[in-house]
Design brief:
7-stranded mixed sheet, single chain, 5 helices
């Protein structure tokens, strides 16, 4: 009777806890699958945008998401325009990036152009003077990240985080400024070889498949563990009953 009662006791507490945990693990796995699909779509979009032919900034920046698109920019006086410096590291080398304001003809906002990287070992800078000589560049549009809470404050022309509004004020810009940063893919000063124009590589961390496999694997392990415990709970090992009458202990003669 006691063995039958033990088999009849169903572990509702264990089942409820296991079901909740299993649902959570499956939800996390499904969520990572959705994130994987979203990230793959974002990467495909970025690759397609990078392959598109350069267009006028007014067309490129009017797109829903112009990041990674290329634009054909005309900047009067860019070669001798005022600049601010952004402290950075490029290919393991410390230095600064020079950023100047550009008024593309026909576009109603000032654009900030990242003209390129200059290593710390180079103390010289491009000259600054008033000029209307047009500089034609192909640029890549990139989103400007908001300054982090730990970013150092700017010191005169030296910045430690991108801040288009603050940079524009230092550069004496009046009127609206585009929130996008345009990275020059060609040099505004070809005669000055220390300036290295480039756009930063796209940084897409796509580990969602591994995360999904981990969550689904944990869900499978939990289900197997629960089944093993349930079988042991409902089918406990039988205990041999003592013999009636007892056994007489043999004594040595």
């Amino acid at each position: 009777m006691k063995a039958d009662a033990a088999r009849a006791r169903f572990p509702w507490g264990l089942t409820s806890a296991s079901a909740l945990l299993l649902a959570l693990l499956l939800f996390l796995g499904a969520w990572q699958v959705q994130r994987l699909q979203w990230k793959e779509g974002l990467i495909a979009q970025a690759e397609a945008a990078a392959k598109a032919a350069p267009a006028d900034p007014s067309i490129v920046l009017a797109a829903n998401n112009p990041e990674f698109r290329k634009a054909a920019l005309v900047c009067p006086g860019l070669a001798t325009a005022p600049w601010v410096e952004l402290q950075t590291i490029h290919e393991g080398q410390p230095g600064v990036r020079l950023i100047s304001a550009c008024r593309h003809p026909g576009y109603d906002r000032t654009l900030l152009v990242d003209r390129g990287f200059v290593a710390d070992a180079i103390s010289a800078r491009p000259p600054i003077s008033v000029s209307e000589e047009p500089v034609r560049l192909t640029v890549e549009v990139r989103e400007t990240p908001a300054p982090g809470p730990m970013a150092l404050s700017a010191e005169n022309r030296r910045f430690y985080a991108r801040d288009n509004a603050a940079m524009a004020r230092v550069l004496g810009v009046e009127g609206p400024v585009s929130p996008w940063t345009l990275f020059a893919l060609g040099s505004s000063n070809p005669e000055w070889v220390a300036l290295q124009p480039s756009a930063p590589p796209a940084a897409f961390n796509n580990n969602h498949l591994g995360y999904a496999i981990t969550w689904f694997g944990l869900a499978l392990a939990l289900a197997a563990f629960y089944i093993a415990l349930l079988r042991r709970k409902l089918n406990p090992p039988s205990v041999a009953a003592p013999r009636k009458g007892g056994d007489r202990e043999e004594r040595p003669s």
